[in-house]
Design goal:
Blueprint: H1 5-8, H2 10-19, H3 25-29, H4 33-40, E1 42-47, E2 55-56, E3 63-65, H5 67-79, E4 82-87, H6 93-98, E5 104-108, H7 112-115, E6 126-134, H8 143-146, E7 152-156, H9 160-168, E8 173-177, H10 180-188, E9 194-198, H11 199-209, E10 213-215, E11 222-229, H12 234-250, H13 252-263
Parallel strand pairs: 1-4, 7-8, 7-9
Antiparallel strand pairs: 2-3, 5-11, 6-9, 6-10, 6-11
């Protein structure tokens, strides 16, 4: 899974959905999502193979783990209905909401463009942070530690990560690559000292490579992610907002995250937290 949000290309598809004659929000909602879910007996959650957010058990075919799965099951239980996983892609999730195929999709960022097509709660679901996978012997605590001549950093070209490094770590040797895979490969081969991405793809890279350390340099550069729902259903948006605010403030979202990491074979202590206030 490529966690570079630019790669998802959701925005263009959302525009097609708005202009392509999909089911209107009024028709899709009928009596409202809360009432419809209770009548149906299930909360339909969009899922896609993307650890740590969603993960299907290859042995059973069940969507059994991941932060999004855990949140969806908890919200379904709160409604007194079953969790119903509906497979989508990051690129088709918004269209699936508009066509009334799913009721909610977690871990979608509430950009202005997306907000024109779907609604988002006010409360953040989680935060993910700009991080580096660095050589074990490279001292990194702050961005200034990386802002040194001779430090080589790989980054996907023309991304928000590239923009940040160009503005903040200009003394380093910034090496730009077409995508995440190529940037990580440069680190694996020793051509660079660190690779800079938002932290989720670095978790899988660290596990696969068996080398390097993941660091969120200070000051932390974190962005919120949210949950998308059909547009115009104020009651459902308010309910979702209250639910995810509770999971975030209680720390439950971090508990689910650490449970997944442990099951995935990763040390939770080596991964940046999803709760912004817990970042050092």
């Amino acid at each position: 899974m490529d966690f570079d949000r630019r790669a998802f290309n959701v925005l263009a598809l959302a525009g097609l959905a708005v202009g392509g004659g999909f089911v209107t929000s009024a028709r899709a909602q009928a009596g409202g999502t809360l009432d419809e879910a209770k009548k149906r007996g299930s909360l339909r959650v969009g899922v896609t193979q993307a650890p740590p957010w969603y993960s299907k058990d290859p042995a059973t075919g069940e969507w059994s783990s991941g932060v999004g799965v855990s949140v969806g099951k908890a919200m379904a239980q709160a409604l007194g209905v079953k969790f119903e996983a509906v497979e989508v892609t990051w690129g088709t999730a918004i269209a699936a909401l508009q066509a009334n195929k799913i009721d909610i999709m977690y871990v979608l960022d509430a950009t202005p463009e997306r907000a024109a097509a779907v609604d988002f709660p006010v409360a953040p679901l989680l935060f993910y942070s700009l991080a580096v996978l660095a050589r074990d012997d490279l001292p990194v605590k702050s961005w200034e530690d990386l802002n040194q001549p001779g430090v080589r950093i790989a980054v996907p070209q023309a991304t928000s990560m590239d923009k940040f490094l160009t503005e903040s770590v200009s003394k380093a040797s910034i090496q730009r690559f077409p995508g995440n895979t190529e940037a990580i490969a440069a680190f694996q081969s020793g051509r660079v000292d660190a690779v800079c991405l938002f932290h989720p793809p670095l978790l899988a890279a660290r596990q696969r490579l068996g080398q390097g350390k993941i660091v969120v340099p200070s000051p932390a550069q974190s962005v919120p992610s949210s949950a998308a729902v059909r547009k115009g259903d104020a009651a459902f948006v308010a309910w979702v907002d209250a639910q995810i605010a509770g999971y975030y403030k209680s720390g439950q979202i971090q508990v689910w995250y650490e449970e997944f990491l442990t099951g995935f074979g990763l040390d939770p202590k080596a991964a940046p937290p999803l709760i912004k206030e817990r970042l050092g």
